[in-house]
């Protein structure tokens, strides 16, 4: 029996909360935009909220072809 223990979010409900790298504040509905890899360093990641994704025409990492 494969029953999910998680409930689905209703439409319009933010699914994540985190730091937006574009407007430098915490926000709802952030998505991963870029992964910065460095050979000898720690690298990093950049997240963007919905309004910043729209304003700067950012495509989330997971949605790229």
Description of the structure:
The protein has one helix and four strands; from the N terminus they run ββββα. The longest helix is centred in the C-terminal third of the chain and has 6 residues, at 50-55. The chain has a two-stranded antiparallel ribbon. The mean pLDDT is 84. Helices cover 9% and strands 29% of the residues. By secondary structure, the protein is mainly beta. It has one helix spanning 50-55, and strands spanning 17-20, 25-28, 31-36, 44-48.
Low-confidence stretches: none
What is the H/E string? EEEEH
Strand line-up across the major sheet: 1-2
Tell me the number of helical segments per DSSP (H or I, 4 or more residues long).
Answer: 1
Summarize the topology.
Blueprint: E1 17-20, E2 25-28, E3 31-36, E4 44-48, H1 50-55
Antiparallel strand pairs: 1-2, 3-4
Task: Describe the structure concisely for a colleague.
The protein has 65 residues and is mainly β. Helix content is 9%, strand content 29%. The chain has a two-stranded antiparallel ribbon. The chain has a two-stranded antiparallel sheet with strand order 3-4.
Tag the structure with descriptive keywords.
about 60 residues, mainly beta, two-stranded antiparallel sheet, 4 strands, globular
